[in-house]
Amino acid sequence: MTSFFRPLLAGADESGTCGDNVTWMYSEAKQTLTIFGSGDMFNYGSGFTPFNNCSNIKKVVIESGISSIGSNVFQNCSGLTSITIPNSVTSIGEGAFQNCSGLTSITIPNSEMNIEIPGSTSLLSVTPNEELYDYDSDIFSGETYSKGTLYVPKGTKDLYTRSCGWWNFLKIEENS
Question: Which of 59, 61, 108, 147 has the most other CB atoms within 10 Å of its CB?
Fold first, then answer.
């Protein structure tokens, strides 16, 4: 079933497109949305995405080959708890994770990217795929991240602690 502006239905496996060469597939049994293909995801207006208000999506897996996450695409997905973003993603559109109040874990790529992730009091775990301590960006700005933990590669805790892009994390732990 292909969908552009119809919200994802609860209780069913579905699929559709969200970019010229980007496809999504939802597994109800796993409550997982997988996005695959190549290129950019569509940018959406507020409330006009196939995933708007989808509380049944718990996990999003974006596969390598996707180059951007569209504006507002996961807006109001209150059930979303984790997302993994591959190194191929170089930008995340405005409002992509707006009102994702359940989002507690983000794995971000090691590529230089333009990210805007609004503060979420639920965000408890951020894991860079590789060393990003010199990433000079305030992608995680604000007090909300002081409650979360930044998990970093072994031997890099000191580098992340001194880097301005990660200052708002009061708790930084090294992966073993």
Answer: 108
- Assess contact for 123 and 145: CB atoms under 8 A: yes
User: How do strand 125-128 and strand 91-92 relate by DSSP bridges?
Assistant: unpaired
Give the fold, CATH level 3, of 1-123.
3.80.10
pTM: 0.72
- pLDDT on residue 169: 73
Q: Check whether 28 has a pLDDT greater than 80.
A: yes
Amino acid 38: pLDDT: 97
**Which segments of the chain belong to CATH 3.80.10?**
1-123
